[in-house]
Amino acid sequence: MTSDIGLIGLGVMGQNLALNFADHGATVSVYNRTTSVTDEFAAEEGDRSDIVPHTAIEDLVAALERPRRIVLMVSAGRPVDAVIDQLLPHLEEGDIIIDGGNSLYTDTIQRSRRLEDAGILFVGCGISGGEEGARWGPSMMPGGHEEAWPHIAELFQAVAAKAPDGTPCCDWLGPDGSGHYVKMVHNGIEYGDMQVIAEAYHLMKRGLGLSHDEMASIFRRWNEGVLDSYLVEITGDILALEVDGERRVEMILDAAGQKGTGKWTVISSMELGQPTTLVAEAVYARIVSALKGDRVGAAGILSGPSGRIADTEGFVDDIEQALYASKIVSYGQGFMLMKAASDEHGWDLDLGRIAKLWRAGCIIRARFLDDITAAFERLPDNLMVDEFFSAALANAQDGWRRVVMTAVGAGLPVPAYATALAFYDSFRSADLPANLIQAQRDYFGAHTYERRDRPRGEFFHTDWLEGGAETPA
């Protein structure tokens, strides 16, 4: 009996994805480098005929129908290349390797070129939704060699999450690293979403002194409106959980971890000259949180306001507006970045299609994404200037500004709200003080500048110490 698809890497995500494939009619050959993991998985699933365990990679390859389809669910980096090296001697032209991990998109570009030379079709497929998503329906973001898509489309779209209108949250995105790039930006936006929610929690807990039940109720109410989303929903559950008389969230050390995709997003944004400022602040907020020992020491030395917010009337509603407006900015920045990457790499990304893929299954799934999808159907130059979102920002900004001003006055950090507001104010400014920066650069380094009264692309230099004579550069 031949298998329809192979899967290598039986961590929790790999196991759940294998079961998801099997539930949708596929016979799945599985392999893990540590044989005991394969044995335990097979034993847990009993005598299912649609899950076929193997103890050698060559046996898994031999069991697959052609063209062979093999999904890698291994750690990003060298482990992916190591498994590819093991597979190559046993594969034939036209076989397909799908990397379903969180690989860096530049690695995916290199692997795509390398495997094309070997006649193998390579797909980098971002998969979002965690363990639950892998088992019951993730958001899937494939890109790479497009010839592979007809061979994997039916099965991948079958196992993917379905949006409220029934559309599978899986569609082809573009060449080489495009799928993993979109997943990287998704994760960067996820960092931002988590930070703006955490700032709301901090303002309500420390600033307003609300109880956990009160905060849980507020998040659940928010989840019935424009903030309806998976992360807001689970925040209500988290705040409500009490174990042995203690709220579990308060027993967790305030030192956040990260696996790198947020950092990759920020690095890419700098390389492409795009301002993902909210994601950057979310990454730095995690870095600062990890300095727990330093912060505890500094708390006894550095002075500041008490953190209490005195004027509380309507402030929870203001926080809701700050959270919503900051999300709009963050997503706007994320889509700006994906457009720039698409232009740089020739991917021709469809931004509206990407928003559709995130409507279900993934961690940032939200009602909000239907509005983003609709916005891109209207083809805005930027999400924030779309008629729907520009109106939403106008309606939210009074409360948003009050939150930032009040938090600063109380000594409570709101880096995500503040940077989002700063970007909003910068983006809506026809004039910024960068003319002075260019003058300084020209003064000390003869870096030249453009003139307001001349076409873009013409550069000039001033002799700042000898009478201000100006010459074309």
What's this, in brief?
This protein is of the alpha/beta class and 473 residues long. It is built from 19 helices and eleven strands.
Describe the structure.
The chain is of the alpha/beta class and 473 residues long. It has 19 helices and 11 strands. The strands form 3 sheets. It has a 7-stranded mixed β-sheet, sandwiched between helices. It has a two-stranded antiparallel ribbon with strand order 8-9. Helix 1 packs parallel to helix 6 (130-136) and helix 15 runs antiparallel to helix 16 (368-377). The radius of gyration is 25 Å and the shape is globular. 44% of the residues are buried.
Write the layout of secondary structure elements.
Elements lengths: L4 E4 L3 H12 L4 E4 L3 H10 L6 E4 L2 H6 L6 E4 L5 H10 L8 E4 L5 H13 L3 E8 L1 H7 L2 E6 L4 H11 L18 H30 L4 H11 L7 H11 L1 E2 L2 E2 L13 H12 L4 H14 L1 H8 L15 H31 L5 H7 L10 H10 L9 H24 L4 H13 L6 H12 L14 E3 L7 E3 L1
Parallel strand pairs: 1-2, 1-4, 2-3, 4-5, 5-6
Antiparallel strand pairs: 6-7, 8-9, 10-11
Low-confidence stretches: none
Task: Report the count of strand segments.
Answer: 11
Query: Mean of the pLDDT scores?
Result: 96
The share of residues in helices is 40-55%
Query: Structural class, from secondary structure content?
Result: alpha/beta
**Number of helical regions:** 19
Radius of gyration: 25 Å
For the sheet with most strands, the description reads:
7 strands, mixed
Strand content: 5-15%
Outline type: globular
* N→C terminal distance: 72 Å
| Spatial ordering of strands, largest sheet | 3-2-1-4-5-6-7
Order of helices and strands: EHEHEHEHEHEHEHHHHEEHHHHHHHHHEE
